[in-house]
Design brief:
This protein has about 250 residues and is of the alpha/beta class. It is about 45% helix and about 20% strand. The chain has one domain (about 20-170, about 205-235): Rossmann fold (3-Layer(aba) Sandwich). The protein is built from nine helices and seven strands.
Length: about 250
Amino acid sequence: MMRNLQQRDLRPEIMDQPGVERRRHEHALRGLARVNALSRIAAGTWRPIGDLAARRGLREMSICDLACGGGDVSLGLVRRAQAAGIDARLTGYDLSPTAIEHARRQAEKESLPADFVMRDLFAEPPEGPYDVAVCTLFLHHLDDARAVDLLSLMRRIARRLVVVNDLLRKPLGYAAAQVVCRMISTSDIVRLDGPQSVAAAFSLDEARRLAESAGLRHANLRRTWPFRFLLDWEYPAEQSTATGMSDGPAD
């Protein structure tokens, strides 16, 4: 059934609820990883990071992934860094112990340099600094005020680049989520939460206003496939110079 998507429909998703049974949660994480692989979200998120590294000649880089979930996107970034000859050290943060344990197992299985930490980002925000702060497919879970808080946190802890990759609220995207989530996963959480995530997502103009409110002025913001937006904001060069940051390898 099609829903009215003129405004956000921010309802609690199953994945956000405490006490979701572990096996059911892990089933959903595997399904979401397949959705993310199909939509190539790690590749899209890496693009501005790789561009930054190439322009500044970075061979080392620290990355934090806020609300990393099961870690499939986080590890996809690490793989792409390695393929580009960059020594990337990634730290992923998430509130869910099940998601963090799942991510740790995947990193250990592939021997990838990634740490995963269970943490409430708003109660105990990471201090940083990190070269790059990333957040994928989490902003739509938040009300406007919390979304600005998260973007502001990313601006504070990133010394080079902020990247946000998230859903756009589009009728066609909602219909696609209904079909694709049923085709790609048998998880009831994926099948129900997928379309709801689209209904809760921001429009491009709304995302731009949030970024401005968080101090990410003149951020690059564009539509990407499929029914997503990509936001990247590079730390202003004059401020980098003032704070003693250089274009050499990350510390």
